Amino acid sequence: MTGRQPIPASLARELMLESGYRCAVPTCRTVEPLDIEHIDEYATVKKHEFSNMIERTSITTHDSSIVVTWR
Ligand SMILES: [Zn+2]
Asked: What are the sequence ranges of the domains in the chain?
């Protein structure tokens, strides 16, 4: 995985605030550990964009369709 830009700190903070520092999946809401993920693959969109990103636990695998429906 090369050429991937780091997520700007300001964007990461916005995502954290939006989700209330919890996993953004309504059925989960785990507090930590959290990861920032892209809803559409980064390889496809090639940018970090608030509307395409979400806070999720890094320990649980979520069905991505759950997130897309919720958004
Ligand atoms: Zn979760």
From this structure: 9-70
Q: Calculate how far, in angstroms, residue 65's C-alpha sits from the geometric centre of ligand 1.
A: 13
Give residue 33 CA to ligand 1 midpoint distance, Å: 9
What is the model's pTM? 0.71
| Ligand 1 geometric centre to CA of 43 (Å) | 22
pLDDT tens digit sequence for 12-44:
999 999 999 999 888 888 888 888 888 888 899
Long-range contacts of 54-58 (CB under 8 A, 24+ apart): 54/15, 54/19, 54/24, 55/15, 55/16, 55/18, 55/19, 55/21, 55/22, 55/23, 55/24, 56/23, 56/24, 56/25, 56/28, 57/23, 57/25, 57/28, 57/30, 57/32, 57/33, 58/33, 58/34
